[in-house]
Amino acid sequence: MSTPQDRVTEQPLLVAFVDLTGYRRLAAQYSAPGDLLRLMDGYFEFVGDQIDAAGGIFVKCLGDAALIVFSEDLADRGVQALVGLKDQGDAWLAGHGLPARQQIKIHYGVVASGPVGRRASKIWDVYGDTVNIAATLPGSGITLSPEAFRQLQPETRKLFKKHTPPVVYVGQDDRRPA
Fold this sequence. Notes:
Blueprint: E1 9-21, H1 23-28, H2 33-53, E2 57-62, E3 65-71, H3 75-95, E4 101-118, E5 121-127, H4 129-136, E6 142-144, H5 146-149, H6 154-157, E7 160-163, E8 168-171
Parallel strand pairs: 4-6
Antiparallel strand pairs: 1-3, 1-4, 2-3, 4-5, 6-8, 7-8
Helix pairs in contact: 2-3
């Protein structure tokens, strides 16, 4: 998947938000904002390395969250990478003595992608209902929408269990959403 800086495209993508639970408590541990910024930069570098290795795109940081996409042909591999990120990222946070865990929400559908921002300095971004649905999925741990679940191979599907209503798929070890 390319990220052309000069045109808008519409395409199906796997869209994920990685967010930290307990971020306010984490941030309160840092009296100097620069220390918190350096910590988050290190965390996002770690996340970016995991996503890059799986062929995904780390679109942007949004405070303590990251917006990530995978092309349609990498949807299964992307979910596997995000499952790995959940374990490895939580270990990274714990290894730094941080009272936070990752919450990962994943949806699949058509998005518009292209350049946005200041006239002189645009960045590639993604928009659409698919992004909004991914951001607002319920649950903790890892949550997949039914649309994302349908993109998975049988072996990857075994990592999740069905939760209703509304239908979402959560990691085998995660609590059911309230």
